[in-house]
Amino acid sequence: MATNVEEAETTILCTSKQTRFDIKNPVYQELDIEGLNITVTSGPSKSAVKPKGKARADGLELLSNATLKLKAGVHYALIGRNGTGKSTILKAVAQKLIPGIPIPTRISILQQTDADKAAAGDGSVSSIATSTAKLSVLEQVIDNATSRNEIQREIDVLSAAIEGQTSTLAALRAFRQLHHDRMKRELFILDKDARLRSGTRGMAARKALTAFEKKIAESAERLAEKDEDLTEEVIQEETQAASDLLVELQSQVEPARIADIETRARNILTGLGFPKANFDKHVSTLSGGWRMRTNLASVLLQPADILILDEPTNFLDLLGIIWLEKYLIQLRDSASNPPTVVLVSHDRDFVNAVCQELIILRDQELAYFRGDLLQYDKSIKDKQLYLGRMKDAQEKQKSHMQNTIQQNIKQGKAAGDDNKLRQAKSRQKKLDNRMGMEKSANGGRFKLNRDLTGFHTTARAEIEIPQDEKGVSITLPQAPDLRFPGPLISLEKVTFKYPSPKKTTPPAPAILTDIDLTIHTGDRIGLIGLNGSGKSTLIKLLTDTTKPTKGTVTRHPRLRMGYYSQHAVEELQLLGMAEHELTALALLTQDINDSTDGEDKLDEGEIRGLLGALGLPGRTASDVPLRKLSGGQLVRLALARLLWKTPQLLVLDEITTHLDFYTVTALAEALSTWNGAVVVVSHDRFLVRRVVEGVRGEEESEDGEEEEEEGRRRVVYLLKGGG
């Protein structure tokens, strides 16, 4: 995966345990891979030989001796903090870089990054083509599902050769060229298989590769064979083979089959929010968000054994998210041979509705939990409570035993009583060797040889209380007083419509009509609605980047506003690509130095403190270039660029897009207790409920109390029909 022209290529190195037995598993929806190690290195791999020992430490290790286990037809959610490598692990699965994934497995993937770009892969991995200039949205989705364009190209080549009158050998030449091109694609797959396997099976794969390379060489010789060297029998035989291949290809694109696929494609596009008028638009004319929806439709339409969706709810409105929920649930319940689904999403409600099991990525390991996020959080709290009580009780027991041992030693030495000394020694041995876990994971009595693998010096495992996985702790600086009262922003009878491009054309319809909206200090305002309902236009009016056609917009003269744009991360990524060495600390320092307001200047320690409070501590802020920060880290940097001015109003437009749900929870908690006003534009139902409505769910607070502060107004507005 090349990051840019000058930067070295990033290589994903994967190793796993492989049995020496050739076990055939016909269920391609299942994976059971043990001893999995995944390391990401900067720079191409020097050889095809897999790393051993210290070679693994040359890059960033994402997984160490993990187990990847997928059951057929089950829907999984992969959860973990930003920057732990979730997207890279899914990419390694999709490209079959992990030894143990059968080559025939059909894997479709929607990647989180770069909606406009395709992920390179072999024919079994769904890759969204970048050359979409000549294809409409509907044609692109169908082509990705059926390879119709490639099949049609082969049909055109064979038809022209067979029906043309240019040469009697044209059909033979076309057939040989197509056959050679197909063999080269098959060679790529065999080469990958030979590189990934080891031992006896690796030797067999390399022998198969060598034998196939000889066939490729023979095919190349046939391509270069002169006309006069061809016998009549060969010409007749291969001309007939070309005709048979043409018939086979034509059957694959017959109208009845394509019509059925087109109907399904139209239903999927409609469900994802595409207006029917846009089906015939060229993909190249779409924005990044609509291209991502096109990619998602392509992935959903393709036949797959394993379906991987990395942040599929990005760029979807609420109706699109709900439709996707129902589609995936129906796919699981109604299909005769449903695919295994692995998805990553920050949307808690979406994960809880769709997924049956969780895969928890933590400390370079994969753990599994059957249930949703609410049940997982509750199980963690129950386990913390149970183990905490066990540890407290054991600490009291240890203290009592230690006092008893000291008394026995003292009495034994004073009286010369060897029994007392032996008793003290026996109790000390028990204290050192047999204290720890008393129950196994199944609730039975703990046994060392069954419940604790490997070599240990004690007969009990230590009581380890699981720590909360809350991502980062986010702290927002307090908003300053305005000195005199008044609303922060007031919109009165505001109407907005775009001007007509020409005087002869009819006037454009109003996007917003007679909008009244007042925002006071401490208010929590939520804006929801379908894409195109006017949310972005209203945000532009609030942030003074657009003037109303009618009506008035009034702002408090001392108001400081922080506006987080939904394109903030993409803008920072472009800035990082333009200046390769630019860091978060350097960029924020530059922003502060360029500010004209002298009283807002911060020194380096204060800047580092702000970045650290938002989850960019130490060397992450000062040493890591912007181009190497994850999407979630760039969100935090964008927030820091707003918060150093200590605003009284935050306008947040789709801020959760690049965050993991641990960080979404931390951000929601910080915004809920902040003393300034917040305007939230989001399709994340959890964020709107928590920040705007002030609802605390079971997963956040056992008190179940809603936060109601005096004077705080909580309103959710639905934008529809311009009102």
Automatic annotation (TrEMBL):
<dbReference type="InterPro" id="IPR017871">
    <property type="entry name" value="ABC_transporter-like_CS"/>
</dbReference>
<keyword id="KW-0378">Hydrolase</keyword>
<dbReference type="InterPro" id="IPR003593">
    <property type="entry name" value="AAA+_ATPase"/>
</dbReference>
<dbReference type="InterPro" id="IPR027417">
    <property type="entry name" value="P-loop_NTPase"/>
</dbReference>
<keyword id="KW-0677">Repeat</keyword>
<dbReference type="Pfam" id="PF00005">
    <property type="entry name" value="ABC_tran"/>
</dbReference>
<feature type="domain" description="ABC transporter">
    <location>
        <begin position="489"/>
        <end position="718"/>
    </location>
</feature>
<feature type="coiled-coil region">
    <location>
        <begin position="209"/>
        <end position="240"/>
    </location>
</feature>
<protein>
    <submittedName>
        <fullName>p-loop containing nucleoside triphosphate hydrolase</fullName>
    </submittedName>
</protein>
<keyword id="KW-0547">Nucleotide-binding</keyword>
<dbReference type="GO" id="GO:0005524">
    <property type="term" value="F:ATP binding"/>
</dbReference>
<dbReference type="InterPro" id="IPR003439">
    <property type="entry name" value="ABC_transporter-like_ATP-bd"/>
</dbReference>
<dbReference type="GO" id="GO:0016887">
    <property type="term" value="F:ATP hydrolysis activity"/>
</dbReference>
<feature type="region of interest" description="Disordered">
    <location>
        <begin position="427"/>
        <end position="448"/>
    </location>
</feature>
<feature type="domain" description="ABC transporter">
    <location>
        <begin position="33"/>
        <end position="388"/>
    </location>
</feature>
<dbReference type="InterPro" id="IPR050611">
    <property type="entry name" value="ABCF"/>
</dbReference>
<keyword id="KW-0067">ATP-binding</keyword>
<keyword id="KW-0175">Coiled coil</keyword>
